[in-house]
Description:
Layout: H1 11-56, H2 59-80, H3 83-97
Amino acid sequence: xxxxxxxxxxxxxxxxxxxxxxxxxxxxxxxxxxxxxxxxxxxxxxxxxxxxxxxxxxxxxxxxxxxxxxxxxxxxxxxxxxxxxxxxxxxxxxxxxxx
Length: 99
């Protein structure tokens, strides 16, 4: 196995790179905290809303809510497939030639 070529890194160059690395790690940790905290907050809110749902909704209303969740799930799937871009490519050329 061949050894990697040695790089002569001086101490001042190494010391200059350390703050940059610390800044990047700090920014990454901050992003993880923001998105992780928001995700956790949404899950806690959903759990707490179960009490409200059971108090104010009838069992027949649960079916309507479930149907809405199914529709929303399908919309998320199609949005993830970039269907908006595909429709834009399909519709815009015909509109340009109709003018």
